[in-house]
Amino acid sequence: MEEEEEIFESNLQQQHAVEELNFDTYLSSLHTYLGDVEDTRHRTAFLDAASVCNLPLFSLPGVVLFPGATLPLRVVEPPSVAAVERALAQVDVPYTIGVIRIHWDTTNRRMKSASIGTTAEIRQYGRLADGSLNVVTRGQQRFRLRRCWTDAEGVPYGEIQITDEDVPLRTPRDAFGKLVPLSNRSRSHAISHMLSSRAFWPQWVYHMFDSYCLAERAADMWKQIVGAPSMDSLVKKPDALSFYIASKIPVSESTRQELLDIDGITYRLRREIELLASIDLIRCKICQTIIAKRSDMLVMSNEGPLGAYVNLGGYVHEIMTLNKADGITPVGPSATEYSWFPGYAWTIAKCATCRTQLGWLFSATKRKLKPSSFWGIRSSQVAEEIRRNR
């Protein structure tokens, strides 16, 4: 009952936030700060499951790309520019790169690459006068990284194997057999009856493995917490829904990688339901200071409350947007140049306790623009999840 009240309160707060918001969330999903980019007008066919191929590889710190998610890139370094040009020109897998997360391994004190990544289709790109590229990509298929190397010209490559994804499962309508109580029959006869029945487990057991039932449950929880619009179309596609929630849920990057690593729609949805039911507080990764609650999430993009954006130097940040936050201090002057959210100026924001840069404060440059301000918190600076006591 207590959890239901918290979710109800969260939903009311989100509805209140939506009523005050007049910002066009479609604008932020266009990544207009990248300037003029051309549509490649090319849509890559999906690669065969279990197929192996070599792709130009982008190893990105703090970024976990999921199928269906948008990833903008500001490609500055010559080897990376060459990697994009190779991808645009390659014949066997055109307009496609591989994206994999890298992170600092504290045990071995070196950068370590994840084993599971996602192919990304180049959908838009533009070349600047200095030779750098602005690129917008979209996640396509999961893959396992078999090996990686740098060729003679310094271009990073990876040998990948496309993941053989399962299909959504639905429990047959007539799968639930009626069991005769043990008190009315002998134990041996009852066991024989159960073994010969098409189904002898309770209905809730089957729902644990029914992709569509799990999708409905996850979508309902997501809508209650985030206040998102109808997700009926995604519920009909449990695989797409599982990737959508995984790409938007406000958790640490390591937990997001865990979700990407999971094989099986059912298992991914069950893990997401567990996270949605248990996660309440968002904390600083370094000092564990409480930054916000999940009820503070604010949707400032039509792609959801968490998305990827790239700065002028080419560093990609995955940020979650919040309507309020505690323990964070804006530092320095505000700027409108290269703002990810048109109409808002950004100011660097640091943890008031440990002074780690957690993200940015975005402030409206026009009085009538709502919300007047909000926070963008880097998922790479969010602590591992602490589950609520039940």
From TrEMBL:
Pfam families: LON_substr_bdg, Yippee-Mis18. The keyword Nucleus applies. Residues 279-386 form the CULT domain. Residues 55-280 form the Lon N-terminal domain. InterPro entries: CULT, Lon_prtase_N, Lon_prtase_N_sf, PUA-like_sf, Yippee/Mis18/Cereblon. It comes from the Eukaryota. It is found in: Cytoplasm; Nucleus. Likely a component of a DCX (DDB1-CUL4-X-box) protein ligase complex. May interact with pic/DDB1. Substrate recognition component of a DCX (DDB1-CUL4-X-box) E3 protein ligase complex that mediates the ubiquitination and subsequent proteasomal degradation of target proteins. Has an essential role in mediating growth by negatively regulating insulin signaling. It also has a role in maintaining presynaptic function in the neuromuscular junction synapses of third-instar larvae. This is Protein cereblon.
